[in-house]
Automatic annotation (TrEMBL):
InterPro entries: DegT/StrS_aminotransferase (IPR000653), PyrdxlP-dep_Trfase (IPR015424), PyrdxlP-dep_Trfase_major (IPR015421)
Family: Belongs to the DegT/DnrJ/EryC1 family.
Protein name: DegT/DnrJ/EryC1/StrS family aminotransferase
Keyword Cell membrane included in the entry's annotation: no
Species this chain originates from: Streptosporangium amethystogenes subsp. fukuiense
């Protein structure tokens, strides 16, 4: 299936995990871009969650599409399926925020009924299942991120329900990949190795301060600066020129569309073993975190899964983050403000108050660090965020 020989082994390993043919891609965002270009026409309206990572928004824009903000649930930050306005939608991109599954069975059924294309973005949810089936396989196509799972810091997969679509997607991939020099290949492998070492040796705090002091942490706040005027200019081309958009598409991953050589691919293959090795500890961490007073209702009520992060909802979140950072814990994965507040060109979604509450209070916690975080949050006297719902919105 693959133009890159060594990718076949990775693709076979992924196919065995999810039960569907896959293409290896350098990043989930690149896979998503290929899928959006393949299944949609310029100007199509595609529903995405405002609580999501901005890379999803930027690939939708890069594909020449119109992003529409989804209603979101206060219980898990995912798409609130019963409240979707389906008018004029050509597609939906799932969220599976932090690994907590979207209501994909309902989404699939509604999309099928209405002839809407569902793309199943499982970038956060490589180990999530719904009714025994892997998240990422509920759509016409789906994507996965090795940058997050196994902390490989690059790599991902694109899968399609109909394997006959894959050869054309592979051609499109090979045409858009950029050659990576030896230095970029080596750095792509060394970076995650170095990061793992830092985490294992407990040097997070001094490293974090050093990186900030050296100006290597490129922005403060939770999202990259939008630079909206330049963005609008970069989007003007027809078709959209990916090079003009590189600033927005390479957030946290400079080599998001670099052809990955044997060294990087071998490293990524080795991270599958890490994912499997950590699975038990991850579930145990989720089991602990979901019982805490800060846990999101949706996680508390669901059967524990090996989530990427567990969303806690806390008062004075940014102050809590600053205090955690000073103790060597850097939470990450905070997507604040919601995408419709982030860019003026994105029209406001139907549940903007809930989205704002969610992104303004969420503290995503790595289940592998559950016990330490539970202790720290108690020690810091962190209070749960008051729920935003009114009596009529409360669950039965
Ligand atoms: C939900 C979601 N989808 C897709 C992506 C893109 O993943 P990758 O970094 O592998 O391109 C991200 C994060 O960047 C994400 O959070």
């Amino acid at each position: 299936m693959s133009g890159q020989n060594g990718s076949r082994e990775l693709e076979a390993a992924m196919r065995d995990r999810i039960g569907q043919e896959c293409l290896h891609v350098p990043s989930a965002r690149f896979g998503l871009l290929l899928a959006l270009r393949h299944w949609f026409e310029r100007g199509d309206r595609v529903l995405i969650s405002p609580t999501n990572c901005e890379t999803v928004l930027f690939v939708v824009l890069a594909a020449g599409l119109e992003p529409v903000m989804a209603p979101v649930s206060w219980r898990d930050g995912n798409i609130d399926v019963p409240n979707i306005d389906w008018n004029g939608l050509a597609g939906v991109v799932t969220t599976h925020l932090y690994g907590q599954p979207d209501r994909v069975t309902e989404l699939r059924a509604e999309c099928d009924r209405r002839g809407v294309i569902l793309l199943d973005d499982a970038a956060h949810a490589m180990q999530t299942t719904v009714g025994g089936r892997a998240a990422g396989t509920f759509g016409t196509a789906g994507v996965f991120s090795l940058a997050k799972h196994g902390r490989a810091m690059s790599g991902g997969f694109l899968t399609a329900r109909d394997p006959a679509a894959l050869p054309e997607l592979a051609r499109a991939r090979d045409e858009s990949l950029l050659p990576g020099g030896a230095r970029a290949q080596l750095l792509g492998t060394l970076r995650p190795v170095l990061r793992e070492t830092i985490y294992r040796t407990g040097l997070v705090r001094p490293m974090w301060h050093a990186l900030k002091a050296l100006g290597l942490v490129q922005w403060t706040g939770h999202r990259c600066p939008p630079r909206e005027k330049e963005l609008r200019a970069a989007l003007a081309g027809d078709p959209v020129d990916l090079r003009a958009l590189d600033h927005w598409l390479r957030i946290d991953l400079d080599d998001w569309r670099m052809r990955q050589g044997p060294l990087l691919r071998r490293y990524q293959r080795s991270r599958f073993r890490v994912i499997d090795r950590e699975r038990g500890r991850r579930v145990a961490g989720v089991e602990l975190l979901r019982t805490l007073p800060w846990a999101a209702e949706g996680v508390r009520d669901a059967a524990p899964q090996p989530l990427l992060r567990v969303p806690l909802l806390v008062e004075n979140r940014d102050e809590v983050v600053a205090r955690l950072e000073s103790r060597g814990v850097v939470p990450g994965f905070i997507y604040d403000p919601p995408l419709d507040d982030y860019l003026e060109l994105v029209p406001e979604g139907p549940s903007s108050e809930i989205a704002r509450w969610w992104t303004g209070h969420v503290l995503p916690v790595d289940p592998l660090r559950a016990a330490r975080m539970a202790g720290l949050l108690t020690e810091l006297d962190v209070r749960p965020a008051p729920r935003p719902f009114t009596a009529s919105q409360q669950p039965a």
